[in-house]
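WP5 quarterly update. Target: Fatty acid desaturase domain-containing protein. Source organism: Xylaria arbuscula. Length: 452 aa.
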Amino acid sequence: MSTESVVLSPELTPSDRLILENLAHDIRTHHQSQCNGSVKATGQLAKHENGTTNGVNGETCTPSKDRDGRDVATLTDLNDPASQDFEPTVFSSWDMRDLRSRLPPSVFQNLLLPYISWAQTVARYKTDVVMVTHLIMYFATSLPSALLLFYHFSYLHGVAHVLLQGWYIGAYTLLRHQHIHQRGVLAKGSWMQLFDHVFPYIMDPLMGHTWNSYFYHHVKHHHVEGNGPDDLSSTVRYQRDNIWHFAHYVGRFYFFVWVDLPLYFVRKGRWTTGLRAGFWELLNYTAIVLLLRYNFKASLFAFLIPLLVMRLGLMVGNWGQHAFVDADEPDSDYRSSITLIDVPSNRYCYNDGYHTSHHLNPLRHWRDHPVHFLQSKEIYGREHALVFHNIDYLMITVRLMMRDYEHLAKCLVPIGDQIDMTMEQRVEMLKRHTRRFSEKEIQEKFGVAKAR
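Structure tokens (predicted):
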């Protein structure tokens, strides 16, 4: 392909920006090697949202290995508290490097730095000040708002509360994602450890989660099956650009997860886990029903609507994460999940875009995903992994329902052999990866019979 366009949003995290520039450099170097060291005149390698470009004709590229080493070192230093370049994440919207210039010096020195020092004693990792920030925000806004709905209800307040929770639930879910994998996000052996254990039982129902179900479904089930045929949230039996298949996928989770998940554990001989999963799910439903009977209006806006929204969001997200499955090796984490380098997933949701990295190592800390990706870039290329940018999981699902493969192909950042593909070839590749698997193919590819 003679042209590439990599959009560098000004809202990208420093890590994501560095990685996209690194990948654009690889594309540019590849084309230069094919054209005797010159970039093709039609090439547009890194296009900023303001219209400026990187990769002008005749630019001399440094060897990729040298650049990769420097970029990996830069990313590593950002995560290393012992490095002078270390940057904790304090807020989702602003990077530490920007706060010094954005804030008055007195506020930066006398308020922000002492807060960071304190929060780092509370958080499990010194990078994770943002998790302390968010927990304070949730308990200072969501919880009082919900209590006020029960004390003095108004529809205006109810709608405002739902909108607030709708803004929070993405980031909260990914905070909990870190929590369930790491068994907590706050410091061990401190007075905060009890709060770390208790806060999900308070906050989860307000954010649309049922007690412990995320842990049992995601950690004990999804990561065990890895989108394979026994995974209740597997996409392989669905045509991933068919809206009716998607509706069936969402509907099954919506209405039957309460029985499907316990029965899954029973089929696997994990009776105790199945009983626990069923107990917590039904207990939460019972609590919501009792609250609805006590105060229907307040409970509707505080608990039921967030639950319905969250269940839809979880399935839309999982569909986007596992929509593209390579039939040649569908049980490979590289070929059954994707990587997104985008603002919503990575700036606001704890690097959730690095889904392949997460499946390769579910215990990997969220700040380490970009480092891993860059260190393993050649492996990703050899394994034909898919990397997208300037699009999130929600919009991947929407574009698939529209069957807009051209847009998806434009969002693809080619790596490895994909760099030589034309846009038409990328479209055909993506279409192949969304094809439904027959039961015969599932048995051949996964070595199992139908398990449902």
